[in-house]
Fold this sequence. Notes:
The chain contains five helices and three strands; from the N terminus they run H-H-E-H-H-E-E-H. It is an alpha+beta fold. It has one domain: Arc Repressor Mutant, subunit A. A hairpin with a 2-residue loop joins strand 2 (90-95) and strand 3 (98-103). It is elongated. The N and C termini lie far apart (72 Å). The model is unreliable at 7-16 (pLDDT under 50).
Amino acid sequence: MSHTEVLPLLEPQAAVPCCPPLNERPMSAGEAEIAAKMFKALGDPVRLRLFSAVASHEGGEACVCDISDVGVSQPTVSHHLKKLKDAGLLSSERRGTWVYYRVEPAVLAAMGALLAGTEKAT
């Protein structure tokens, strides 16, 4: 006899920006801490390439086996992916022997909102 339970689906989180657009008002100390952590994680070229590979991958998620060709060793790739996860930019799920990464749902929207409208008309 099997005991199968249907789990409810979670609704996707609405994009909640971490901070106001840069030209809206000065950031608070807390907002600046959050934004700095995010941008610091993306400040390394290898991490930026990995983040871009995950964000642009078909289906919105990527197996580590598909994104590890960034010119560094596999342990270094794992280190950089951990840094992106620690900054709240990526989440991961283990499936068998592989780990799949995806950009946190609100991250791209939050980053876009932070930078939105910063270009001044000349």
